[in-house]
Amino acid sequence: MIPDRIAFTVAADQPGPKISRHIFGQFAEHLGRCVYEGIWVGEDSPIPNVRGLRSDVVAALRAIKVPNLRWPGGCFADAYHWRNGIGPREKRLRMRNDTWGQIETNAFGTHEFLDLCAQVGCEPVICGNLGSGTVQEMRDWVEYLNAPVGTVLANERAANGHPAPYGVRFWGVGNESWGCGGVMRPEYYADEFRRYSNFLGNYEKTRLYRIATGPAVDDYAWTEVIMRECTNPRFNGAVMDGLSLHYYMNGLTPPAKAPRLMPATKFDAADWNRVMAHGWFLDELLTRHTAIMDRHDPQRRIGLVVDEWGAWYENDPSHPANELYQQQTIRDAVLAALTLNLFIAHAERVSMANVAQVINVLHAMILTFGDKMVRTPSWHVFDLYTPHQDATRLPITGAPQMRAHEDGAYPRVSVTASRAADGSITVTLAHTDPTQPVTVELTFAGLPAVGSAKAGRMLTAPALTDINTPSDPNRVASVPWTDFSFDGAKLIATLPPACIAVMSFA
Ligand code: AHR
């Protein structure tokens, strides 16, 4: 069969918005084996670690240049009391994690989290407890973290081993306050957000970036109320810096209405289409939430922060259901690439995003098996996308071949192109057709010819349902890609089914 051809033009010499590195962020919650085993093994563990944080995981996260990490939840955030997680570890309370039904030892608390961020080289994003906490508790946490030595709380931080202020910038004021975070109405939450935010201090050079709980999926009414109430000049119209959005591609929320969660690794063509269409629905969500934000914030000062996203499948039966543990296939890698492409396409408004979650939970980058660790197919996607971090998005025209399916439409090929500070150009191509190859022609308008092509890489899988395991950790992994040619300033490449490819040139 002769592959179909799809042509795009990249305006290689044009300006565009910056692609914030923060849209490649991660999320770690006290849930299942994300924090305990996935990150924290303790100083006495036979698993190699630095101050209790497992070294293999830290190295894998450094490799994909994780820009930020959100913690401690999720729903757990609105049940978490930070004082339980500081001071001598042997004295910390052992309690029930009311949110997820597990034992919480509090061994991993504020200092351990910030040590993790330092080891990974990323910025912390802390989600404070608005649901079951108090204004005083949240403002004290900020002072404990960010005030210079000289106040009671800053001195306590110093006594606990960290004299220098941590300089935490990104701050979530509650999580899913319409649901697990307190089942609030948007009008009530807007008042609470302003009240809490009013008492959160800016210390030294650290101005807090306050993120309000945003809508679930397509709750446009929530966005409307929060934007209206939290940009009102009568009540400090600059109190909100970011508005969150949560979107899980699980078939249970719009656009699809599946009767139950789907299995992660057993699927047919219809299931493939459902996940892709569900993923691409994010385009409509971002467009419509942005339109509401634009009305209230035409200068686009407030960022849309998609601080939870990812595929959410039926729990893997080999683990307790409350661990939200699932394996991963090339389907999730293609979904991740489509999603990142959408964030980049909406870079004028999307300032940050966090895939849920980083390790052992939902759409993870890493899975641990005791002392073993594997990188998931999505880890490879984040790896391939690192050149886009903080680069300039380039305009692209061309028909991506939208294909309609029962659950909605999605593009056959989705492309992102960017120009880095050093002038090099990177193109990432996500091919969503699970069975047929496609030929792509990419013309780089504005360039006389393409300079020296750096080696490309490609991620695909021997079979659609293949997974990475400790005995076969690189079954779905990126490999060098050289099977493309140039005709002047035109790249011509035939892509196999279900793949993600990247190519950079100077
Ligand atoms: O990521 C798992 C859960 O999904 C989070 O705790 C919550 O915020 C969301 O509903």
Describe it.
- This protein has 506 residues and is of the alpha/beta class.
- The chain is built from nine helices and 27 strands.
- An eight-stranded parallel β-barrel has the order 2-5-8-9-10-11-12-13, surrounded by five helices. A six-stranded antiparallel beta sheet has the order 16-20-21-27-23-24.
- Helix 5 links the parallel strand 9 and strand 10 (209-212).
- The model has no long low-confidence stretch (mean pLDDT 95).
- The structure holds alpha-L-arabinofuranose.
- Alpha-L-arabinofuranose (AHR) is lined by residues 29, 73-75, 175-176, 308, 356-357, 362.
- Residues 29, 73-75, 175-176, 308, 356-357, 362 line the site of alpha-L-arabinofuranose.
SSE blueprint:
Layout: E1 4-11, E2 25-27, E3 49-50, E4 53-54, H1 55-63, E5 68-71, E6 95-97, E7 102-104, H2 110-120, E8 123-128, H3 135-146, H4 152-159, E9 170-173, H5 186-198, E10 209-212, H6 220-230, E11 242-249, H7 269-296, E12 303-311, H8 330-345, E13 350-356, E14 366-369, E15 372-375, H9 377-384, E16 392-393, E17 396-398, E18 402-405, E19 408-411, E20 413-419, E21 425-431, E22 438-445, E23 456-459, E24 478-481, E25 484-487, E26 490-495, E27 499-505
Parallel strand pairs: 1-22, 2-5, 2-13, 5-8, 8-9, 9-10, 10-11, 11-12, 12-13
Antiparallel strand pairs: 1-17, 3-4, 6-7, 14-15, 16-20, 18-19, 20-21, 21-27, 22-26, 23-24, 23-27, 25-26
Helix pairs in contact: 3-4, 5-6, 6-7, 7-8, 8-9
The structure holds alpha-L-arabinofuranose.
Residues 29, 73-75, 175-176, 308, 356-357, 362 line the site of alpha-L-arabinofuranose (AHR).
